[in-house]
User: What shape does this take?
Amino acid sequence: MNFYGRDFLTLLDYTPEEIAYLIDLAAELKAKKKAGIAHDTLRGKNIALIFEKTSTRTRCSFEVAANDLGMCSTYLDPSASQIGKKESIADTARVLSGMFDGIEYRGFGQEIVEELAKYSSVPVWNGLTNEYHPTQILADFLTIKEHFGKLRGLNFVYMGDARYNMGNSLMIGCAKMGLNFTACAPAKYFPDEALIEKCREFASVSGATLTFTENVDEAVKGADVIYTDIWVSMGEPAQVWEQRINELLPYQVNKATMDKTGKATIFMHCLPSYHDHKTVIGKEIGEKFGLDALEVTDEVFESEASVVFKEAENRMHTIKAVMAATLTK
Assistant: This one.
């Protein structure tokens, strides 16, 4: 397969075979790193990392992966770039692609990363937008494949707000790769109907099923994977917490939820997580509403079923695979 020069903006742009290739390449690069085998095949190249939304895992993943591949990286935080302020997105793309071999963008609307890609002469990678988070899904699927030895046919349940980047991207990934996807939440939190219909087309080819339900017992029965995310995303006003808690608390992942699956289910979360009071927001919101935890209890988060830290590590290996594939002739 030839990925050279391609952007990585959403899994909608990639075939199941291409997604599988990137997951396998990530596993190969991970094995090399664990064995201490050098793989700095992109020595001399440089990448720009544009972060309009800050991150621990995404930034570290791109920087470590770039270093392992022999590349240098330049980090542009929200105050270090003029993108969309003093300089247009189109002009920023053309300036940076004259200096760098690849550009990562993490920020707001998908239209921003799409415009960057339109005007850039080098690959552009989506580190997260409001609508999609494709590098996270590669890490999730690598983690699932490491645990179960396969993807196709597994039952994948997403608990909570599925309207944005994680719900959208996981639904697309499952539909394309043959995992049975269930979104469990109040109906107002389901993904956009147009995207659901597009994913039904993918599912008809892969053999996956798509289910949308408000019934927790129905959703989690037979689940191989239960996945959740924080209820209020970065950039949303603090005032929405009360409404989200009232509406989503019945969909919290706790021991009772995990016990209802009837099998050895793994728990996944893209992080950060409010599973205790050891973060400023977790403490503030937890104390305000009298809760020990929000989207997942500490008991589940710290249990043997939890693979969240393997999942976090795999961000780096899968991001490395994307960069290696798109920058190698």
Observations:
- The mean pLDDT is 96.
- The CA atoms of residues 95 and 120 lie 9 Å apart.
- The radius of gyration is 19 Å.
- The first helix runs from residue 16 to 34.
